[in-house]
Amino acid sequence: MASTGRNLSLYISRIHKYPNGPRINSTKLSQKDIDVIGEELNCDSSPENVHEDGEISPTQAWDKWDFYYKVGHELKILCQYKGFEMPELWELDV
After folding, report:
1. Cβ contact 45:68 at 8 Å
2. Half-sphere exposure of 21 toward its Cβ, with a 13 Å CA cutoff?
3. How confident is the model at residue 1 (pLDDT cuts 50, 70, 90)?
4. Lower CB count within 10 Å: N or C terminus of the chain?
């Protein structure tokens, strides 16, 4: 039985820390939850957000992008296993 991967679980926990952010139950994901995760991931993985407008080092930006890529990959695996439609991820080729 597939469950959320380590990176995806961590990402969902981060989403919960946003003021007025969406509440996602990672043990009972729905298509709506998957879509919300995709929307958040699209925002977070945009070049402006990854590089923080040039205010972080290239290494720090790479680490952020690598994390988002892993989240996207785990989301794709989960969608395939559970039969959810994978949201389009604009910046991540997973």
Report:
1. yes
2. 17
3. very low
4. N
Q: Give dist(CA 87, CA 78) in Å, integer.
A: 12
Dist. CA 94–CA 91, nearest whole Å: 9
CA-CA distances (angstroms) from residue 8 to 45, 52, 53, 69? 14, 22, 25, 10
Is a pLDDT exceeding 70 seen at residue 94? yes
Contact 72, 92 (CB under 8 A): yes
Count of helices and strands (H, E) across the chain: 4, 0
**d(Cα 19, Cα 92) in Å, to the nearest integer?**
25
